[in-house]
Specification:
The structure holds two protein chains of two kinds.
Chain A (H helix, E strand, L loop, with lengths): L1 H21 L1 H14 L5 E12 L2 E12 L3 E5 L6 H8 L9 E9 L2 E2 L7 H7 E4 L11 H11 L5 H14 L3 H4 L12 H14 L4 E5 L7 H14 L4 E5 L3 H7 L2 E6 L2 E7 H6 L4 H7 L5
Helix pairs in contact in A: 5-6, 5-8, 6-8, 8-9
Chain B lengths: L2 H8 L17 H31 L1 H7 L2 H4 L3 E2 L4 E2 L2 H32 L2 H13 L5 H31 L13 H26 L2 H9 L4 H10 L3 H17 L2 H6 L17 H8 L6 H37 L1
Antiparallel strand pairs in B: 1-2
The chains are: A alpha/beta, B mainly alpha.
The structure holds adenosine-5'-triphosphate and magnesium ion.
């Protein structure tokens, strides 16, 4: 049994190596990019041949994508191209949609998140998510909104909870604004504050990867700037994948950018390269605003 | 300029309102319809007011004779002209409570299953089946109650409850039972209010934006935790509304209850004993009332029932609206 698993692992390794060779070009650029930054980033997540369906409608076609640790990866593309569907595959949220189907594989470090031994609940605790519309739980206080993730994990120790709530709110740059009103309802905050509350809520569980689906599209410019600054901060400790419709935002916050069209990953490269010298004509057309 | 040229000039971009469907520039028709609908709305209010007024006037003789004793006395003796409403109020409220006790868990379970867990294809057919229960006339429930439910309760259910009551020293279940009892009435009522609870709570659950469920799931909540956190908690108030509307229906139910409750005006903590209800006593005694005072007493019971159900329904509606408004923000 153990032998069998080891065998499987080896096969996966081999597949990975092949895949990296296959993407030789992308790696070169990435190395250059990292020399600029002066740090070594390792592989955090990897999508292999990801296909996804809603009923009979296919939304993703054979997406292969490597996510590097402590990078911000932006996903851009016209509406309906499958950006949300793709990131929802990264924490197994796609399968919660009735009638959905999935094929391919996604790895979180060494493990496939679709391994039968992997509990989707555990995957979602390691790979957190922030949605387009801020979604604090309306009946819970600010404090409870942040603490809920830990409570779901069975944490009851008030001291630990207090500590984590403060730490998470600080990380989400919200602490100063709410520290005197922690018992107020989460829904009573402004839209931008609610979104940062949702980020704090996600950070309160010990997550490694943060998925953000258009986190700023419901927010005003000032709140947007705050969230973007926050993303820069969070990058020190977390791996971030952000879907955005705003090309400038992608350019500002991300190190790598993926361009999608009609459910296919068209091009995926260092952000600089994508925005200055894309390989693919379609990418260029999209970035220069010729469609989408 | 010919008309077809004009049509093409406009293009598909700005389709004009068809002359037949527009009400003209003055907006007279609009105003007229507004007035008309407002009139109908007020007419209904007026009718309700008129009903209450009539009952009030009709109940004057009893009120004059019994005073507030009508509300506190449990003697009901038409021959001697003594009227106390307590046994009927008691029977109505207790049978309705038994009904809620049974129907609420079932109804919430069904609607949670239908909105959260059941496969899409199953949802509408099952909901339809449950809601069709509401279309069965209550006299049919009553017949079913007399011929099937009451004997079944007497033979199979009540003995078990008696044994249970004996073992736990509960005063609620004492034999011998005839099958015609408060408890049987409660069971029939629970079936009759099940569609109300299911339909309204389903509406309340469906009003909860999907984003709440998604964010609970994305935090690593299990299915049950997701339901508890993002569906049940935010809809507490709306559910209270659903339950109160169902209670309103149970309180006013007449035929089915009359046929199985045993029609005995007594106040007993024993649920297996026969009892009476406000609606049943009116239905049973009105046609053979022995005196004007008797009729007046029945009218006063009617007034009491109307006030209780009205207040309940108003509170319930306010609660449901309050939750709906909360989510629209
Ligand atoms: N719940 C669903 N049921 C059926 N089809 C869906 C569902 N969600 C998405 N789709 C379809 O899948 C495709 C991809 O949708 P997705 O939401 O991933 O697009 P997107 O790139 O995130 O678009 P947007 O920028 O508008 O958010 C679309 O064609 C959409 O119609
Ligand atoms: Mg989307």
């Amino acid at each position: 049994m153990i032998d069998e698993l080891a065998e499987k692992d080896k096969k996966k390794e081999k597949k990975k190596v092949e895949n990296q060779e296959h993407r030789g070009e992308a790696r070169k650029i990435e190395v250059a990019h990292h020399e600029n930054e002066g740090e070594q980033h390792s592989l955090k997540m990897k999508a292999e041949g990801v296909c996804a369906w809603f009923g009979t409608k296919q939304a993703l076609y054979d997406v292969n994508m490597a996510i590097y640790e402590k990078d911000v990866t932006a996903i851009i593309g016209p509406s309906g191209c499958g950006k949300s569907t793709l990131i929802r595959c990264f924490n197994r949220m796609h399968e919660t949609v009735p009638g959905s189907r999935f094929a391919g594989d996604i790895f979180l470090e060494k493990d496939s998140i679709f391994d039968p031994r992997m509990d989707p609940v555990v995957v979602r605790r390691r790979v957190g998510m922030v949605f387009q519309k801020p979604t604090p739980f309306p009946t819970l206080s600010i404090y409870d909104n942040v603490a809920i993730g830990l409570r779901l994990n069975g944490m009851r120790d008030k001291k630990v909870l207090d500590e984590v709530v403060e730490k998470s709110l600080r990380k989400a740059a919200l602490w100063e604004e709410v520290k005197d009103s922690l018992q107020k309802a989460g829904g009573a905050l402004s839209g931008g504050q609610q979104q940062r509350l949702c980020i704090a809520r996600a950070l309160a569980i010990e997550l490694e990867v943060l998925l953000m689906d258009e986190p700023c599209s419901a927010l005003d410019p000032i709140s947007t700037t705050k969230i973007e600054e926050l993303i820069h901060e969070l990058r020190q400790n977390y791996t971030i994948i952000i879907v955005t419709h705003n090309m400038q935002q992608a350019a500002r916050v991300s190190q790598r950018t993926a361009f999608m069209l009609n459910g296919k990953l068209i091009e995926y490269d260092a952000t600089e390269k994508m925005f200055t010298n894309p390989e693919n004509k379609l990418t260029e057309d999209y970035i220069t605003g010729r469609f989408g | 300029m010919n008309p077809s040229a004009e049509l093409t000039d406009n293009g598909g971009a700005k389709p004009r309102a068809l002359p037949l469907l527009s009400f003209g520039k003055s907006g007279f028709a609009d105003k007229f319809f507004q007035k008309l609908t407002a009139f109908f709305a007020f007419l209904i209010l007026f009718l309700a007011f008129l009903t209450a007024l009539t009952l009030w006037q009709a109940s004057a003789p009893t009120f004059h004779k019994m005073g507030w004793n009508f509300l506190t006395s449990s003697d009901w003796d038409p021959i001697n002209g003594i009227f106390g409403s307590v046994p009927f109020v008691y029977g109505t409220i207790v049978s309705s409570m038994v009904a809620l006790f049974i129907a609420v868990p079932f109804g919430l379970g069904i609607s949670l299953f239908l909105t959260e867990l059941a496969p899409m294809k199953m949802r509408d057919p099952v909901a339809f089946l449950v809601e069709i229960l509401a279309a069965i006339p209550s006299v049919v429930y009553g017949l079913w109650g007399i011929f099937l439910l009451a004997p079944f309760m007497r033979v199979h259910v009540d003995p078990v409850l008696e044994a249970l009551g004996g073992a736990l020293r509960l005063p609620f279940f004492k034999g011998p039972s005839t099958g015609l009892s408060l408890f049987t009435a409660g069971v029939i009522l629970s079936i009759m209010i099940l569609p109300t609870i299911t339909a309204i709570s389903r509406e309340v659950f469906e009003a909860v934006p999907n984003t709440y469920r998604e964010s609970a799931r994305a935090l690593g909540a299990t299915s049950w935790e997701t339901i508890l956190l993002s569906v049940l908690k935010p809809s507490r108030v709306g559910l209270l509304g659903a339950i109160m509307l169902a209670l309103g229906r149970a309180l006013g139910e007449t035929m089915a209850v009359t046929m199985v409750i045993g029609n005995t005006p007594q106040v007993s903590i024993n649920l297996l004993a026969p009892a009476h209800s406000m609606a049943s006593v009116i239905a049973n005694e009105f046609s053979e009332a022995v005196s004007d005072l008797h009729i007046s007493a029945l009218a006063e019971i009617g007034l009491l029932l109307m006030v209780i159900t009205l207040v309940l329904n108003i509170v319930a509606h306010l609660l449901v609206w309050a939750t709906a408004a909360k989510f629209q923000k």
